[in-house]
Structure formats: C-alpha cells, structure tokens
Amino acid sequence: MAGPSSDYHRGEMEIAEQTATYQLVMGMTKWGSLGLSAFLLFVILWFCTGAGFMGGAISGLVLLVLGIVFLREKPGAAH
Fold first, then answer.
1. Domain map of the chain by residue range?
2. Which residue from 79, 3, 71 is spatially nearest to 33, judged by alpha carbons?
3. What is the rounded distance in angstroms from the CA atom of residue 26 to the CA atom of residue 63?
4. pLDDT by residue for the chain (79 residues), tens digit each?
5. What is the DSSP string of the chain?
C-alpha cells in the first residue's frame, strides 16, 4: 500500500502567530466598537436632541468609562 501523501500531521503546527493575529483583531474590534459607539452617542445627543454639547459629552464619557470597566481583560481569564 502507498504511504501518506503529505508530511502534514494534525495538531503539530506552531500557531503562535495566528493566535496573536486573532487576539489583535478581536481587541481592535472590541475597543473600536466601544469608541465608535461613545462617539456616535455624543454626536447624536449633541445635534439631534435638546441635550446639547454638555449632555452629549457627559453621556459619551459615561458610556466610554463603563465600557472600559466591563470590557477590559479580567485577571485569570486565560483559556
């Protein structure tokens, strides 16, 4: 019978670069979404409601701070 057709062995490949890239993309998505949502809240409240600049700025800042608190990496969360 013929031997294996390739030298590939499942589960033996070094995946550190792929893991690092995945973590980078997920982090950029998470923090970018938070920043964008805080900015949109600020602009919408500033221009589309009677809250004005200060109401929008305070609301956007509160959303940003709460997002940082809840989205930051927790200690011991390694899988």
1. 41-72
2. 71
3. 20
4. 566 677 777 777 788 999 999 999 999 999 999 999 999 999 999 999 999 999 999 999 999 999 999 999 888 755 6
5. ----SS---TT-S--HHHHHHHHHHHHHHHHHHHHHHHHHHHHHHHHHSTTHHHHHHHHHHHHHHHHHHHHSPPTT---
